[in-house]
Amino acid sequence: MSEGSKSTPGSLGVASDVSGRRVFLSPTVIAALVTAVATIVAAIVGSLLTVQAIKKTALETYELTVSAAKYPFEKLPAEIHQGDEVEIAVLGAHSVVLNCGLGDTTVMGMVNQMYQPGTVLPSSNLCSIIGRIGPEAAPCFPVGAYTKFVASISGPLSIGVNDVVPERCNREDCFLDNTGALFVEVTIRRK
To answer: Distance between CA 128 and CA 173 in Å, rounded?
Structure first.
């Protein structure tokens, strides 16, 4: 409609062409236009909802330096939330050399030194890379060179090596005699 014209109930389906002549639209054309507009609106709304869904799944990446001699373990500067998808990867794992007092080893630890009493995680190899979500008393889990999981609890993430905890150590240097360090990349997909 041209500027200044009024729409009346009888003028629906009437449009003006470029020269100002009145053009009548058939009900079929009107229905097609309404369908086209509805499809465009639905596509825009769908795109906005997809963008919101992507924003809800935030991706965070952190790098952490882990010393074999550090206990309590190194903590990530962010909390893990229940339901987060967590991926932990030791960068350059194939070239990392650690020593927990019994000789050089890899991030998988001393394969002949499993189930050592008094270690932080007795079911894992001595000097292997392990992690924990929650306080120092929370259970640990094996990391090795790489692990990926969905967090079942919330709390701070700590990463270190499996050795005898100081309070169970029958000598003074259980963690202090450890050598080596590694770089860990932690990726968190927040839900």
So the answer is: 17
Is 136 part of a structural domain of the chain?
yes
Same domain? For 169 and 113 the reply is yes
Q: Are 90 and 145 in contact (CB under 8 A)?
A: yes
Q: What's the token pair of residue 153?
A: 């609890």
Between 182 and 4, whose confidence is greater? 182
- Scored b (16 or more CB within 10 A) or e, 48-60 reads eeeeeeeeeeeee
Into how many domains does the chain fold?
A: 2
How many CB atoms sit inside 10 A of residue 104's CB? 12
Domain-embedded: residue 100: yes
H helices of the chain, in order, are 27-56
For 125-140, the pLDDT digits (tens) are 999 999 999 998 899 9
- Report if residue 3 sits inside a domain: no
pTM value is 0.69
